[in-house]
Amino acid sequence: MRSDLETELNSLHVRFAEMAMMVRESIQKAMTAFDKNDLILAQQVIDEDQKINNREVDLEQRSFELIALQQPVTSDLRRIVTILKASSDFERMGDHAVRIARTTISLQNKAPIVPAKQLLAQMAQALDLMFSDALDAYLKENDQKAIVISQQDHDVNQLAHDVDQICITEMKANGKTVEDGTAYMLISTYLERMGDYVTNLCEWVVYLKRGKISELG
């Protein structure tokens, strides 16, 4: 019975890690599409999102089945709960990647607001590093590292603020940039929210290790 549970937990863990990689790749593709105005890549992000959605449903079903049929002990239950909660956030991150891709398509043939676009690229890099490090902290159950990583969200938030200020200034100076500036601000909001979800993952790593929920944001 215990060996069956361990096998199922390991499978759940692997499929969760795979979902994280799928989401990370989707975000990277969405921001590359935005940076290079690649409409084909943007559409690819949209088309592939269903795979992320399907994986989230699969993880949810497997998790509930494990809880109902295997009656896991406390430490195992914490891992299942962590995967349940974090996979839901991953699905939302995938949705934001799709929104970035759709915004990219709406911006075709538009002149870029260069300073804001450069800052958005910095935001994406900061988010990607934060996400990668948070996943590593999860895999190693490193709660101390998770706490440190969560503080990087402040940098993402500051960059989002800077993007908004640049866009607002540009829109005030040139009314023709209102539509584009609004789109850039939306992308910064999507990236900022993704940073919040990565922070949530850090909180679940702490829960996984310590058995208590800590607010790190």
UniProtKB/TrEMBL annotation:
Keyword Cytoplasm tagged: yes
Localization: Cytoplasm
Ranges for domain PhoU: 17-103, 120-205
Coarse class of the protein's main subcellular location: cytoplasm
Pfam families per record: PhoU (PF01895)
Highest taxon in the source lineage: Bacteria
Record's keyword terms, sorted: Cytoplasm, Phosphate transport, Transport
Function in brief: Plays a role in the regulation of phosphate uptake.
Protein family per UniProt: Belongs to the PhoU family.
Subunit and interaction comment: Homodimer.
The protein's name in its UniProt record: Phosphate-specific transport system accessory protein PhoU
Organism: Bombilactobacillus folatiphilus
